[in-house]
Amino acid sequence: MRLCFPVSENNGINSEVYGHFGSAPLFIIVDTEMSAVISIINKNQVHEHGACNPVMALNGETVDGIIVGGIGQGALMKLNQNGIKVFRAQKPGVKDNVELFKKNGLPQFTMQFTCAGHDSGSGCSH
Length: 126
Prior knowledge:
This protein has three helices and five strands; from the N terminus they run βββαβαβα. By secondary structure, it is α/β, with parallel strands linked by helices.
């Protein structure tokens, strides 16, 4: 399974999960079966809030799931429409979240907990 993590710095499996999918500078992709880790640049980092193109952001990489601290409704809908499930990170580090994922320990994101804006009361969980 290929899992994608938004990050601000590439420290491989020891990277910390970024708080928001769309504005992350980089993504770490972990292949849990091959124990391989790659990084890619977010090709859609600069966009207006709510106008994220998550498929373009992944730069053509195929992933099975995304683990993130926060994500907007539009990005979540587009990812889900492309068969990609999104899970909420429970620990700061990529490595710890991979282990939790393997144990079914990460909740799947629902629209209720997505980011509707960056003001108080927006429902933003990060």
